[in-house]
Amino acid sequence: MVTTRLPSAGFSITIRIAVTADASSIGRLTTCVGEAGAIVTALDVVDSDPTRVLVDLTCDTADSSHADQVVKQLEEQDGVDVRKVSDRTFLLHLGGKIEVQSKVALRTRDELSRAYTPGVARVCMAIAENPADARRLTIKRNTVAVVSDGSAVLGLGNIGPAAAMPVMEGKAALFKRFGGVDAWPVVLDTQDTDEIVRIVKAIAPAYGGINLEDIAAPRCFEIEARLREQLDIPVFHDDQHGTAICVLAALTNALRVVGKRLEDVRVVVSGAGAAGTAIMKLLLRQGVGDIIAYDRKGALHRGMADMSETWQWLADHTNKDNYSGDLPGAIVGADVFIGVSAPNLLSGDDIARMADRSIVFALANPDPEVDPRAARQHAAVVATGRSDQPNQINNVLAFPGVFRGMLDVSAKEFTEEMALAAARAIADVVGEDKINPTVIIPSVFDPKVTPAVAAAIRAAVKGPAAPHNAAALPEAELDGAPEETF
Question: One of 140, 171, 260, 281 is an active-site residue; which one?
Answer without folding.
Answer: 171
